[in-house]
Amino acid sequence: MFYVLPAIIFVGFVANVVSIFIFFGKELRKFSSSVYVLAVLFADTGFLVSLLFVWLEVLGYGINHTVGMCQFLVYFTYVCSFLSVWYMVCITVENYITICHPTRIKDMCTQKRARIVTVTLAVGPALLYSITLFANAVRSDPQSGLQRCDIKPDFILMNYIITYIDSILTLLVPSLAMTLLLIAIVIAIFHSLRIKRKRIIKGSKLQKKMDKCPQVRVAKMLFALSVTYLILNIPSHVIRLYYLLRPLDTSSSHQISFTEGMIHHIFLHVSYLSCSIKFFLLYAFSSNFRKRIREFLPCFVYTPVLNGYPSTTVSNV
């Protein structure tokens, strides 16, 4: 596991930065869904940066246990994890409107509306988790003597409250919302396929018109992002709920066993993948993204000299 976390961090960071650059391009910037995709890429990248300091601690660099960085990283991690999941909910809602209510696309799926939702969502957690900037402090461990970033004694109760609120807002509500929306999308797709076989000529023309809509063309990409996010995060969410809801007592029964710890550790790393693999999903399911990637990162096979000038051949593989 020692090399898994840095691999997730560095691969994800580079992939997300490239994806952000690509989505700022003219071809993809015109879609309203691109606003949410860009937002979730920024949030994921921020979360990966916070994970970098966790890995540096394993290497012996306790930067996250210094005054200032302690408070900031706790706050930053809370905000990024909140935004990451809720921007994914926005992507799922956008896809739900596209698939289940295509006639409302022009009214509901606009860039202006997407920007307003994105900014509003960013303000919420920025205010909600601001208490963590004052609730944490660097204290000396009485046993080891090392400096540790820990909750202040006066804020222990507040920390429990924040933990439960965070679990509801970033675990229960978004997971349930995404699951229900995806079920509705799948039902709508099967219903559409069944009707397609019986479509009359007039309906066929209407379908062709809808297929030309930009939002409809990116629906497959958005669906892949939502489904993958749920699959990768549900195991860690279940474990987190288990530890959060089980009763605490003074007996040893509430202590985490080695097996439980390993399962939690594995599922946690699986959930981290959701912040790192969006580039690969975008490349697999978006033809516009692939086109931009090939323009941005051409694969030069050879450079023969013709008439005294170099000639570059680009591979299309």
Automatic annotation (TrEMBL):
Classification via Pfam families: 7tm_1
A GO cellular-component term linked to this record: plasma membrane
UniProt signal peptide: none
Main location: membrane
The keyword Lyase belongs to this UniProt entry's keyword annotation: no
Source taxon at top rank: Eukaryota
Keyword DNA repair found: no
G-protein coupled receptors family 1 profile domain: residues covered: 15-282
GO molecular function: G protein-coupled receptor activity
Membrane topology: Multi-pass membrane protein
Localization per record: Membrane
UniProt cross-references to InterPro entries, sorted A to Z: GPCR_Rhodpsn, GPCR_Rhodpsn_7TM
Record keywords, A-Z: G-protein coupled receptor, Membrane, Receptor, Transducer, Transmembrane, Transmembrane helix
Residues annotated as transmembrane: 6-24, 36-56, 72-93, 114-137, 157-190, 218-243, 263-285
This protein's name: G-protein coupled receptors family 1 profile domain-containing protein
